């Protein structure tokens, strides 16, 4: 019994010599009616069916973008503009920065919501209807020209439709973020 206790104590000392990994979680939900192809900076891309959610665990120093295109973009090259969720985790400073960006254009509504216990941080969102709000001169249509798939960047229009999309938010109280796309 004494040997077992010594072995356990030695193991605990070795384990405690290495600091625990600091991680953050992101839950991405497809809130739309079509399948999405999700892309993330320095991470694997993946398909996300309508109504489904994916959970991603990242280092607390991760910095990158999350965006979505139609699911068929996993099989063909899609160059249309897209809405971006930008997240920069603060690591040791514990201050995360995040925003929805329409700097390069808009294709899907996106919402970033810090979650978790005691998270009182603001939501960043951009949500408008392409057909009603994107001028014909800036519309990008599907290959068959039947559907508007995105809108090229128009700063003066986007500022009115998504005033938060130019604002960078910060949060010190969340280890998880919910990103709704669609």
Average pLDDT score: 86
Give the N-terminus to C-terminus distance in angstroms: 59 Å
Order of helices and strands: HEEEEEEEEEEHEEHEE
Individual helix count: 3
- Name given to the CATH homologous superfamily: Thaumatin
Give the uncertain stretches in residue-range form: 1-20
Q: Mind summarizing the main beta sheet?
A: 6 strands, antiparallel
Do you know the CATH architecture?
Answer: Sandwich
For the CA atoms, what is the radius of gyration?
Answer: 20 Å
How would the global form be characterised? globular
Please give a structural write-up:
- This protein is mostly beta strands.
- It has a single domain, classed as Thaumatin, CATH 2.60.110.
- Helix content is about 15%, strand content about 40%.
- It has three helices and 14 strands.
- The chain has helices spanning about 1-15, 130-135, 155-160; strands at about 25-30, 35-40, 45-50, 55-60, 65-70, 85-90, 95-100, 105, 110-115, 125, 140, 150, 170, 175-180.
- The strands form three sheets. Strands 3-2-5-6-7-13 form a six-stranded antiparallel sheet, with no helix packed on it.
- Strand 6 and strand 7 form a beta hairpin.
- The chain is globular.
- Mean pLDDT is about 85; it is low at about 1-20.
């Amino acid at each position: 019994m004494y040997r077992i206790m010594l072995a356990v104590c030695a193991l605990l000392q070795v384990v405690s010599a290495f600091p625990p990994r600091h991680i953050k979680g992101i839950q991405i939900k497809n809130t739309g009616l079509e399948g999405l192809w999700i892309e993330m900076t320095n991470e694997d891309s993946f398909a996300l069916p309508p109504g489904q959610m994916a959970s991603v665990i990242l280092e607390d120093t991760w910095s990158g973008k999350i965006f979505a295109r139609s699911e068929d973009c996993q099989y063909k090259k899609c160059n249309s503009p897209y809405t971006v969720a930008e997240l920069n985790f603060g690591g040791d400073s514990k201050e995360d920065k995040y925003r929805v960006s329409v700097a390069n254009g808009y294709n899907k509504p996106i919402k970033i919501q810090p979650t978790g216990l005691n998270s009182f941080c603001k939501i960043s969102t951009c949500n408008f209807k392409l057909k009603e709000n994107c001028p014909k001169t800036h519309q990008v249509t599907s290959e068959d020209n039947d559907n508007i798939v995105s809108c090229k960047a128009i700063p003066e229009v986007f500022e009115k439709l998504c005033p938060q999309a130019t604002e960078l938010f910060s949060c010190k109280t969340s280890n998880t973020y919910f990103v709704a796309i669609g």
